[in-house]
Amino acid sequence: MNDAIGIDIAKDTLDAYWLSKRKFKQFSNNIAGLRALIIWIRRSEASLIVFEETGVYHRLLQTGLATHSIPFARVNPRQARRFAEGTGQLAKTDREDAAILARMGSQAIGDGPPNFDQRPNRCKSTAANCDTPAA
Predict the structure, then answer these.
(1) Model pLDDT, residue 109
(2) pLDDT confidence of 25, banded at 50, 70, 90?
């Protein structure tokens, strides 16, 4: 199996699901929580971490993964929702979203390099321009 971890991001929490072990774990969406999550990810040896773009809430996670050279894919929420619908997953909870993202990552690994955004955020300082690369 191509191992992946899916992470559902909220303002205060990071809900992670390790696909091959079928383990769910919740972390705080702050520096201390990110440190604990990075340790957990390193122990998993997953090939890819997948999370949805969430405006400002995904930035800490994305920066931490990039800083530690952990492969990740930032996906558009619409892509993730359509993938979930295609698998018959209609319920929507944070745990289920994390599991779907892990399945999406696992399938992408099996199909070759994922076609997701893996670039570190280089954004202008205002939240309104978070998707506009800084000059």
Answers:
(1) 67
(2) very high
3-class DSSP string for 28-96: ECCHHHHHHHHHHHHHHCCCEEEEECCHHHHHHHHHHHHHCCCCEEEECHHHHHHHHHHCCCCCCCHHH
Could you report the per-residue pLDDT of 29-44, keeping only the tens digit for each? 999 999 999 999 999 9
Yes or no: say if 15 and 59 are a contact pair by the CB < 8 Å rule: no
Query: Which residues have C-beta within 8 Å of that of residue 78, sequence separation ≥ 6?
Result: none
Instruction: Tell me the residue type at 25.
Output: K
Domain annotation for the chain: domains and CATH numbers: 4-129 (3.30.420.40)
Q: Is the pLDDT of residue 66 over 80?
A: yes
Q: Which amino acid is at 107?
A: Q
Tokens standing for 72? 């990740």
Answer yes or no: are the C-beta atoms of 44 and 4 closer than 8 Å. Answer: no
DSSP-derived letter for residue 124 is -
Are 124 and 131 contacting, i.e. CB atoms less than 8 angstroms apart?
no
